[in-house]
Write a structure and sequence with these properties.
The complex is a heterodimer of chains A (380) and B (288). Helices cover 14% and strands 43% of the residues of chain A. Chain A has five helices and 21 strands. The longest helix of chain A is centred in the first third of the chain and has 21 residues. With 380 residues, chain A is mainly beta. Chain B has 288 residues and is mostly beta strands. The chains are: A mainly beta (380), B mainly beta (288). The interface between A and B is large, with 41 and 39 residues. β16 of chain A pairs antiparallel with β21 of chain B, so a sheet runs across the interface.
Chain lengths: 380, 288
């Protein structure tokens, strides 16, 4: 009996090994890793578009710019090597400037003897967490080699100009310890949570909604939530962290989202909300317009809200951060998404953005509200 | 001398000695005021050890019985209940109360520091009276609260202190600006300022025109229902709905009473505006 079982196990194992080698699943794309995918310094003629793209992205990963640039064919004559490098390493203190290409996944969309199109998901490690960037690369056969057709627009160049900025700024004068009690009190800003909704998501529970600054002064706002079970015990407490517009100008409304990973909403009986607002110095500049917002699907078929950010001021916004609230037909906030824009937003110029909407909610969304957080180097 | 006579004399001498150092009753000062010298009467003769225990003070010294025990002003600076004790072989004690002196300073707390115009009972003030030694003056004293805006007195409100505290509560005015609040008593005064701010925008009306880069929209001067201009910096959200389902929004702060935004749109567009929970009119602009 034991011998029969042994023979069966060996047979099944061999059969599975053979099946694994023979059968190619739908996700049989190339997976790039940070190191070891090709030999440094060795660049034989790439026989396939996949190999060519792999070599190119490996050079980009390793910052072998000369070799990576030699593998591209410019579609735009205005592009030079410096512009090509800047596209990958970022400029003007944007998020890309603080990021590293960790790896990539690629899969062919179309391939012939002379040209090919590859869809690549670039995995970036950034200070705000991992960021995925999906790009389509066109490749063309040139002799025995495949070249990457580089048709990216060169980085925007802002002409020298004088942009008058005379928006308000609020400074804060505080009293000293020697002041008489009650003589220089300034009340905290009045901030109110105008909506709250708790939902279950794939990762756990999510509490979201909107908060408004009802005061006439700016406020630094943070929203905290505590989940309470049926016996009145706190299950978990979290804050909105970066999923909120922290500095709210007078009458400004911001979405917020608080994630509770691995907490099942069915165990939650009550949610205690707490909004903290403190008076901070602030400026109403820069003004960032959110243009051409539209719900659509991205090349991978995922529902997204995309649009363009337009910096209407004279100040560079190094890392724009988009936060979007999505409403159903009753005006209830059903989801809050956020996303960082990798390029710096230069004065009087625009950058596109896209934030994802869960597929399960995409049909419910009737309207949305987008706000832009801005991080600028040299500003607290 | 016979031994019995000697023993009698020794006993008498001892008794006389004891009688000499016997402490009599202490007499409390009739009205002690903080920071004013006062005295405690004693009876008896000889010397005694005197203890004084009071709020934030305790002292010990030798005193002569039968004379007034003088207390220096600095020894009774703190108002409250004091205990005086004089001891020889036995002790005698008396309690007395040191009252606060006349008001010398005023602590004045006003809330809030900002108040929207036209709200009932939104401004309150509390005054606490202290003497020069920071004792709370608990005897009833009349405090005058005066509220002035734009150089004119808008309200005068006398109030008597209860247990050292006087207070008032009032509505905010109709006009935005600084509200000066003065609390005064017997030449002592304190001034505070409440900033009366415009309330929510009453109506939001927008106008716009096409420009080379799209459209420029702006509000008419934004005012609250009492006609006060809404503070600069208040955010007005402009939303432009374009014909092909695209939306553009700009959060524009009010500057010199007007919020203005530039929106990139080429086709027909419907623009609306909102500030907080107040909505404005819709503006329809045709294609470029």
């Amino acid at each position: 009996m034991k011998v029969v079982l042994l023979i069966v196990l060996v047979g099944v194992t061999v059969a599975l090994l053979v099946a694994g080698l023979m059968v190619h699943g739908p996700s049989s794309g190339t997976v790039g890793i940070a190191s070891g995918s090709s030999l440094v310094g060795f660049k034989a003629g790439d026989a396939t578009p996949e190999q060519a793209l792999g070599s190119f992205l490996t050079d980009v990963q390793r910052r072998n710019w000369d070799r990576a640039y030699s593998a591209v064919e410019k579609a735009n004559e205005s592009l030079d090597e410096q512009g090509f490098i800047q596209e990958w390493i970022g400029t003007n203190g944007g998020l890309r400037a603080f990021s590293n290409l960790e790896g990539y996944d690629s899969r062919p969309l179309h391939a012939s003897d002379t040209d090919a199109q590859m869809r690549v998901t670039l995995h970036w490690a950034t200070p705000v967490g991992p960021v995925e960037d999906v790009r389509d690369f066109r490749l063309a056969r040139r002799g025995s080699d495949w070249k990457v057709i580089w048709d990216e627009a060169p980085p925007p160049s802002v002409p020298a100009q004088v942009v008058p900025v005379n928006y308000l700024r609020w400074d804060l004068v505080t009293g000293g310890s020697g002041d008489e009690w009650g003589s220089r009190n300034v009340d905290s800003p009045h901030v109110r949570i105008v909506s709250m909704n708790a939902v279950d998501s794939a990762e756990g529970s999510v509490v979201m909604g909107e908060v408004v600054n009802e005061d006439t002064i700016p406020a630094f706002v943070n929203v905290n939530a505590t989940l309470v079970d049926a016996s009145g015990n706190a299950i978990d407490d979290e804050s909105s962290f970066d999923k909120i517009l922290h500095v709210l100008l007078p009458k400004q409304v911001s979405p917020y989202r608080i994630d509770f990973p691995n907490v099942n909403l069915s165990k939650v009986k009550n949610v205690r909300m707490d909004v903290k607002a403190t008076l901070v110095p602030a400026s109403s500049d820069p003004v960032i317009g959110v243009m051409n917002q539209k719900l659509d699907t991205d090349p991978q078929g995922r529902p997204v809200l995309h649009g363009d950010l337009l910096n209407q001021s004279g100040q560079t916004v190094n890392i724009p951060h988009v936060i979007a609230a999505f409403y159903d037909n009753n005006g209830k906030v059903v989801w809050v998404s956020d996303g960082y824009v990798e390029r710096a937003l230069l004065p009087q110029s625009s950058e596109s953005f896209a934030v994802e909407v869960p597929k399960s909610l995409a049909g419910k969304v009737q309207s949305f509200h987008v706000v832009v957080n801005q991080y600028s180097l040299g500003k607290a | 001398m016979r031994p019995s006579v000697l023993a009698t004399w020794v006993s008498v001498a001892c008794l006389a000695s004891m009688a000499y150092a016997q402490v009599g009753e202490l007499r409390a000062p009739s009205s002690a005021i903080a920071g004013n010298a006062t005295s405690i009467g004693t009876a008896g003769s000889g010397t005694a050890t005197f203890y004084l225990i009071g709020p934030s003070v305790s002292l010990k010294r030798e005193v002569k019985l039968g004379q007034e025990i003088q207390l220096e002003p600095r020894e009774v600076q703190n108002s409250g209940r004091y205990l005086a004790i004089a001891c020889t072989d036995t002790c005698s004690h008396v309690e007395f109360f040191v009252s606060p002196a006349k008001p010398a300073s005023l602590t004045f707390l006003v809330h809030p520091s900002r108040a929207p115009v036209g709200e009932n009972d939104v401004i309150s003030g509390v005054a606490l009276l202290f003497d020069e030694f920071r004792n709370l003056v608990i005897a009833p004293v009349n405090v005058e609260f005066q509220l002035a805006a734009g150089g004119k007195t808008v309200m005068s409100h006398p109030a008597s202190t209860h247990s050292g505290v006087a207070w008032f509560r009032t509505n905010s005015g109709k006009t935005a600006g600084a509200l000066q609040i003065l609390a005064s008593v017997n030449g002592v005064s304190a001034r505070r300022v409440v900033q009366q701010v415009a309330s929510d925008p009453c109506s939001l009306r927008i106008k716009g025109e096409r420009s080379a880069k799209g459209i420029i929209v702006e509000t008419e001067p934004v005012r609250d229902c009492a006609g006060n201009p809404v503070p600069d910096g208040t955010v007005v959200t402009f939303t432009a709905q374009q014909g092909h389902g695209e939306t553009s929004t700009v959060d524009a702060p009010i500057k010199q009473g007007v919020a203005r935004a530039q929106i990139t749109a080429t086709g027909p567009v419907v623009v609306s505006a909102a500030a907080g929970v107040v909505l404005g009119n819709e503006l329809r602009l045709g294609a470029q």
